[in-house]
Amino acid sequence: MQNRISSFPPLIDDQSEILILGSIPGVRSLEKQQYYAHPQNKFWRIISELLNEEFTEDYGERIRILKKHHIALWDVIDSCERKGSLDSEIKNEEANQIAELLEEHPNIKAIFCNGGKSYKNLQKLLGKNYRLPMFLLPSTSPLHTVSFEKKLEEWKRILDFLS
Asked: Distance between CA atoms of 51 and 2, rounded to whole angstroms?
């Protein structure tokens, strides 16, 4: 049985310079209504290391840290049918309005995709030669078995675009 699920609203403001896009929240994130809520997902650890911020479990503090560093967060998929949390199980997906979001937030300088699914979908949505640079980063999911150190090294590319 496939369940229809929806993504969260974008976490973005007029100061945002970087947009990080996932595919769509997993089961744990949907249950907690928080981006990257699965304890094994390395997103928040990577962000803490990258930005030289103390790691915290407090979701409100996590969001404050993103905003402080001008990082926005959203997903490329607005809604889809999916059993479980795997991107490979996504069916009948509908895209988020990424181009419109970028028009409304002209301070965004670059887009970083958390994993292959978001990157492929973004390229379909915006085209490969979109006006902003788009980068594929290794997924922070526990299913993507690259080491934390290697993921962190790749994610450091974000720092080149932060003021």
From this structure: 38
